[in-house]
């Protein structure tokens, strides 16, 4: 019997900015964008361009999950498969954001 990593399911924990955490089961061959889209849907997030997922790579450095690559190519080596949902870009004019959830106003 041949074991294929591409058919395997990954249990992935995602830590949010407010210290909450969610768990997802994703196929190893799924693109990073599939996981990111699930997270954005769960959060009701429309302004996706300003956020991303980070993980600690083999060298102990923070790396951004590439939405165009498969999960198995990026995080298969992680023991816990824990990712961080983080702000990727700060927008100079928050009033131009589509969703008020991403725009914090005082």
From TrEMBL:
InterPro entries: FERM_CS, FERM_domain, FERM_N, RAC1-GEF, Ubiquitin-like_domsf. Pfam families: FERM_N (PF09379). Residues 10-106 form the FERM domain. One of its GO terms (molecular function) is guanyl-nucleotide exchange factor activity. It comes from the Eukaryota. This is FERM domain-containing protein 5-like. It comes from Octopus sinensis.
